[in-house]
Amino acid sequence: MELPRKVAVGSGVIYELSEICADLKLQPKSLIVTGQNTLEIVGREISDLLEKDGFKPDILVGRASRLEEVDRVEAKAREIDAGFIVGVGGGRSIDIAKLASLRVDIPFLSVPTAASHDGICSSQASLTVNGETTSVPAQSPLAIVADTRIISRAPARLLSAGCGDIISNYTALLDWQLAHRLRNEEYSEYAAALSGMTARMIVELAPTIRPGLEESAKTVVKALISSGVAMSIAGSSRPASGSEHKFAHALNRIAPGKALHGELCGLGTIVMMYLHGGDWEMIRDALLFVGAPTRADEMGLSSDIVIEALINAQKIRPERYTILDAGLNKKAAEKAAEATGII
Ligand SMILES: [Zn+2]
Fold first, then answer.
1. HSE on the CB side for 170, CA within 13 Å?
2. Terminal CA-to-CA distance of the chain, rounded, Å?
3. How far is 155 from 151, CA to CA, in rounded Å?
4. How much distance in Å is there from the Cα of 261 to the middle of ligand 1?
5. pLDDT tens-place string over residues 290-302
6. Residue 259 vs residues 246, 252, 280, 293: alpha-carbon distances, Å
7. What's the CA gap between 237 and 164, in Å, rounded?
């Protein structure tokens, strides 16, 4: 199991960053990877804080989550002989830092500025390779510093997307159990229990989750970290990624860039819960509470696109067995999408 050694979640924890670096006995030279927006919001502040405490940071502004950007960060880290990389941002910078640090064989620290997906804690990097979004094995962060003061100021849509990514654990677990029974796939009770509890907590707290509130930012970011830990325990993304993620990836392939990862996963969870014969209304209602989309047209996705994605989702990552492997035909896909109101 590869787990983070330090996790700090709370208001103003960014000011503990240097202390955390010192506790982890990190080399003084560091590279901060951030985006153009996050550079102004927090990137420079982090650089100043590290500078003040002798961690000699260089800043590199990432442009896109592409492999070429990982090459650029890797080259920079080698050039300055960085002892560690800090990924500061909503997702892209963290993904780039995650993979570049693995290549240079140095630790990486995750400083999320939004709670929009569980990549802030996982060992997988989501990158665009040859025009397609692909999950690339990287490394888990050595530390996560999630400042709720910063995260609570992120756009509302990012927080509700984060809830969608957590709620998707419901169907991911049902798919995993199915694969365990039908394909004898290895199953971890501990990972499943943690992942399930995390998703249940978000459903139960959904009526209280509001953008702009530090308490809500804390609830969601802690849940995202717990999902990441569940994946670390399982040694795969199984506890947090099943048929609903395949559907989300299929949608993104057919109509790229229409919605956030967590929004697509949330939509997928509604319909996959229906296919599993579970309580899909509970999923839909929780998403409504947190302000996440529950209909494809809210994201500019037509009914045809949704049906095409439902039928083709099984082909995404075919080795991962899910409910979709039972063979969903067009008529049944239309029925499921209409019955759940996603189209
Ligand atoms: Zn996800």
1. 31
2. 40
3. 9
4. 6
5. 999 999 999 999 9
6. 15, 8, 21, 10
7. 16
